[in-house]
Amino acid sequence: MKLSIIIPVYNTEKYIEQCIKSVLALKGIEKEIIVINDGSTDKSLCILEKYEKEYKEIRVILQENQGASAARNEGIKASGGDYIYFLDSDDWIESESFEKVVKDIEKEYENNQEIDIVVGKERAYSEFTKTGSLDERIPRELKGKVISGKEYMIRSINDKFWNVRLPIYLYRRKLITDNGILFPEGRRSNEDEVFSIDIFRYGKKLKIVDEIFGYYRAREGSIMSVLNIRHAEDIFRNAKELLEKYKNEEDYEMKKIIFYMIKRYYKSSMKKSIQCGRKDIFEKIYKEFKKDCKKYLFRIKEKSYENIELYIIYYTKDMIFSIKENLKKYRKGRK
Description:
By secondary structure, the protein is an alpha/beta fold. It is 49% helix and 18% strand. The chain has 12 helices and 10 strands. It has helices spanning 16-24, 44-54, 68-78, 95-110, 149-158, 173-178, 192-202, 229-246, 252-275, 279-300, 307-315, 317-334, and strands spanning 2-9, 30-38, 58-63, 83-86, 92-93, 117-126, 132-134, 146-147, 169-172, 206-218. Strands 1, 2, 3, 4, 5, 6, 7, 8, 9 and 10 form a 10-stranded mixed beta sheet that branches. The mean pLDDT is 87.
């Protein structure tokens, strides 16, 4: 069994060596390390070329700056492994525990019991406090179990452990390629949401393991640490893409999942546009929200209590910005 590790790189000269060294530390595993340099302007490419010359399992692909999604898609197309693992260039693998997981999956693979998706854990590492924290939200009774991707989505929504951080997942490559699943391009944030829903939709065997796959670095200046209007617009695009893709979905459980996700994306995108003070973007998103409510959302779960929240947002839009402005005036008056 061969593992393809795909790493998009953009201006991470400070961290990329630690990332690559952690992957090279995996022992007894047939692997290819596909690194896509996404138009870096720092010394990242020099570092990558040095490692490519030294290690035959490393392959560097060059592309103009198009974002992490385009880089990952390029990695998928270039990959030849049986399983794919996506790693960010400023994160690193917990080599010992990840190696154990891969070897366990290899045994199942050799016995023709291929797992489609493996779910692990990651430890967040803060650049600010130099400390780490472990995400332990998945209920213990699910550890070691094999369930469907759809069941995993339902449980993660109901039990509030929804997480689309790619480095906690290991994917069977055929699941991705046979179903034509790719990352939505042209976005700088939240691009892994739609990809994850698509892949869970088709995953028949998902295994949850009680092992740490790696470390996630929370650092100042990273895309997800900066609040800006692009976040609101990218999340809004997720809502529209998901609705277009699944509007004719016949599976009732999937319809419930899609309903929840679209509602969540619309709420989040409107909230972020308010936080950024961009009433123009809010109005644009809200206009589409009303249109989609009438055409699709109110019909998906008609006469359901879950529609109540949609109706509240639908009919109270004009209050939202006025409340925000009054709060600003109130805070100024208290100073």
